[in-house]
Amino acid sequence: MIFAVVESFKTNYHQIMSGEFDGDLLSTSSANEIADDLRNLAFKYVFSNKEVLTLELVGDRVISDLLSLFIEAVTNVNGLEKSKSKHEKLIHLISENFRHIQRFSEAGKPEVDFSELTLYNRLLLVTDFISGMTDGYAVNLHQELLGVKLP
Question: What average pLDDT does range 72-92 have in this prediction?
Answer without folding.
Answer: 82
